Amino acid sequence: MEVNNKTIWVTGASSGIGMELCKQLAERGARMVLSARSKDTLIALAESLPGGLGRHWVVPLDLADADNLLDAVAAQLAEIGPVHVLINNGGISQRSLFVDTELSVYRQLMEVNYLGTVAMTKALLPSMIAQQQGMIVSISSVAGKVGSKLRTGYSGSKYAVVGFMDCLRAETAQQGIQCLTVCPGSIKTNIAVNALNGSGEAQNKDDESIINGMPVEQCVQDIIKAMLKDQDEIVVGKGISALAPTIKRFFPRLFNRMSARMEYR
């Protein structure tokens, strides 16, 4: 799908991959709908994009409040008009052992990463089907393809996104809808700093793999290429984070031994 003059809604637009997607897509001529919890950050971002607030929209949303997302999105559509692409990017990670992690943390991860994605898609997909054109892009993770220590909740929520997108792709294949699942590996963002610990607080420290990961600008370039080519699923990253799904697929026992030996603290 070409993005010039298309309206593209991005969740998690206030930082990381989401913010960079807004910048690069706006440079390509897209009209952006920016969503996250931080209104001030979104306004500043919109003002920095080509055309500013006269061309782009700011819609603060909390993905953890999935029950109210349908009404919140519907209230904006009359002003925004047809949305051609939804990018489900908003999410949160986790770094804690299963035995040390409170159940409430698992609930929060599923509400934000999975149910937030489902609710946003539920809100915008019907109008895309009606116009027989549209694209749903969901940012899962390599953790949605393979598991590793300290990520039981995060990985579970991202596996759910991959499964959801596989089903959605099959259901909408004859209705003009393209579904792209993106599985980033280690990307240089604040995802590790903001990751939840076992008590549900941000761990406030980075991971070595993230520090040495792929620059976010390159990651977003790869995502946009996949959008333009109407691809179904891509893995984005470098090194072991990009190779992990392939190793798991063809050498599952080797991968499981490697994952058990790796230390993350």
Automatic annotation (TrEMBL):
Presence of the UniProt keyword Cytoplasm in the record: no
Domain of life: Bacteria
PROSITE patterns in the cross-refs: ADH_SHORT
One Pfam match: adh_short
UniProt KW keywords: Oxidoreductase
Span of domain Ketoreductase: 6-190
Family under the similarity heading: Belongs to the short-chain dehydrogenases/reductases (SDR) family.
UniProt protein name: SDR family NAD(P)-dependent oxidoreductase
Originating species: Zhongshania borealis
